[in-house]
Amino acid sequence: LYGLETERFGRNIHYYESLGSTQKAAHQLAHDGAPEGTLVIAEEQTSGRGRLGREWHSLSGKGIWMSLIVKPDLPPQKAPQFTLISAVAVARAVEEITGITPEIKWPNDVLIRGKKVVGILTELQAESDKISSLIIGIGMNANHGQEDFPEHVAHTATSLFIEKGEKISRAALIQCFLKYFERYYSIYISDGFKPIRLLWESYAISIGKRIRATTVSGVITGRAIGITDEGVLKIEDDEGIIHHIYSADIQQT
Ligand code: BTN
């Protein structure tokens, strides 16, 4: 990537015309000892995957489909924080490249005008109580036209092109993301999660609003009151009980 402004991230890039999933390839590379900062990018994915086992539609040439290998010296419980660090870096990069301030929906969606432009999937390789690698998968709808989205997401997805009205440079956006990721990651390592939490909350849409969280163990309705310094969502229900949500689908009610 010409003009890269990072020290470590994106210095080692594996680029493919077509892959099943950059996530899968990055898992293999990490397992085989690829260094921190290694980035896998594909022009097209034939079996891109999203959160909760969903399929991720990854059209050729229009989007940014990439997976970043990160190797923090931390316990596995810290892994979810990296989804939030990544979301803040993506939001900040989208803002810088397009001039549009996006919103973050906990834990991993980046939206513009309520529609999804970016999805993030953080996966973990751990040995006992230590992270060996985190694979951060990022899918950005960059230059899609409305007709490029499959029927079932047409009403909930958008692209930077649709929102801005002009094509964006994918290389510039990737570089900008890496710059912010490296910056926020080093802030996180030196000062902890709190500064990231504050940044995250400045982009968050649901905080203070009534939401419905669908979790594996049931549905919780109440007011989203923030995230903890672990990156866990807190919801206060109508009885005043505070629930800690580790994984869920969120809807505003
Ligand atoms: C989600 O919102 O459910 C997360 C979507 C993550 C998609 C990206 S695209 C690059 C990487 N490779 C994959 O197969 N998935 C992630």
TrEMBL record:
GO terms for molecular function: ligase activity. Coiled coil: none annotated. Residues 1-189 form the BPL/LPL catalytic domain. Keywords: ATP-binding, Biotin, DNA-binding, Ligase, Nucleotide-binding, Repressor, Transcription, Transcription regulation. It catalyses: biotin + L-lysyl-[protein] + ATP = N(6)-biotinyl-L-lysyl-[protein] + AMP + diphosphate + H(+). It is an enzyme of class 6 (ligase). It comes from the Bacteria. Biotin binds at Q45, R49, G50, R51, K116. Transmembrane segments: none annotated. Its EC number is 6.3.4.15. Acts both as a biotin--[acetyl-CoA-carboxylase] ligase and a repressor. Belongs to the biotin--protein ligase family. This is Bifunctional ligase/repressor BirA.
